[in-house]
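Protein modeling request. Please complete all fields; requests missing the sequence field cannot be processed.
Requester role: graduate student
Desired output: 3D structure, token encoding
Chains: 1
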Amino acid sequence: MNSDATTAQSAAAGAPAAGDRADGAGGGERLRRVAVASFIGTAIEFYDFYIYGTAAALVLNQAFFPALDPVNATLASFSTYAVAFVARPLGSVLFGHFGDRVGRKSVLVVSLLLMGLSTALVGVLPGYGTWGLWAPLLLVALRFLQGIGLGGEWGGAALLAVEHAPRGRRGLYAAFPQLGPSVGFFAATGVFWLLSSVLDDAAFRSWGWRVPFLLSFLLVGVGLFVRLKISETPVFAKAMAARETGRVPAVDVLRRHPRELLLGAGGMIVAYGLFYTATTYCLAYTTGTLGLPRSTMLGLSLVACLFLAAGTWLAATRSDGAGRRRLILAGTGLAALWGPALFPLLDTGRPVLIAVGMGGALFCMGVVYGPMGAYLPELFGTTVRYSGASLAYNLGGVLGGAVAPLVATRLQSAFGSASVGWYVSAMAVISLVCVLALPETRERELL
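Delivered output (447 residues):
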């Protein structure tokens, strides 16, 4: 189909033509609304996801696995945490299929509902002492549904920003959904810190830890209100008008883009590994092994989260000029160097040095993570972009995020804390090699 016909069909479908950069007042307002919607949605979804990680590190081992010894109870708690990472690629396939065939907007509304409601139900789930074995089984089921929902969330939110953005500013607009995890983590940690500060330990372990989960009912309402006001992306509207959607997008990704899929997933390993080592595992390690107060560590996590936001925004916005690949490689290189320094800083037990250790790790993660919001979508064509970007992102989560707390717990128990730092460096090297094998994408047209 020639370009004139495509433009005409796009106009008939109500989508901006290829040359429309939305620079007018109406276009600028639309882009601001899209940026806000993509940011708020990912912030809420990742808040839901992270409160589980914080609870897993602090209280779920005793609430749902009281019969196990401390190490095995922690491993069991982190195992339920890992279930969602296994579910996330399935969510990518499910939501990616409909996102590439029906549209980005409607799928994002469903993913938000699924994620939010399964999170809120954890807040009313009785513990092992009340329901026995059914309690951890239902916990696993709800965590699985969380993973399905989040598996469809990130790809849609990133595409919402990238496919609306003017060319040359995709990194800037993709920075907004990429900031969602920083804000979601800050909010999740902040709620737990506040509860730990105002409640005694018995009250926190009895009912206080449930409050962050119950807040999800309110946040889902806010997210739905914002997301229902956005429009479908112009890029996808053009594909629909031209009848250029695939029948089974996930199969098309595996057949036509296996290299981009696997290498993109490999590039994400270090981002996930850094985050869940420097947050979930470090929280369990410092409060359990080192015996530091829970409220102190939650406060230090809040400080470290600011480093994540700074690295994410800096790298994402600079990627339009410097290139996505160059900045991601810089982040993986920094992470490889920072890994061995992380646990010696934690082991000092000094709050300032602990904040430096965790903050440095999360800054490295942000430098990798920020440009990925535009980089992964740019690796795939419009008809498979939702499926391809989501699968790469979430497969990286399985390899880097699901196993990181489990491996770190075993390594520390067998070889000491320094071994965990070298594990982080190994993940960084794997990601660096994968990104080296991928091309730069910032000049690509979204076809």
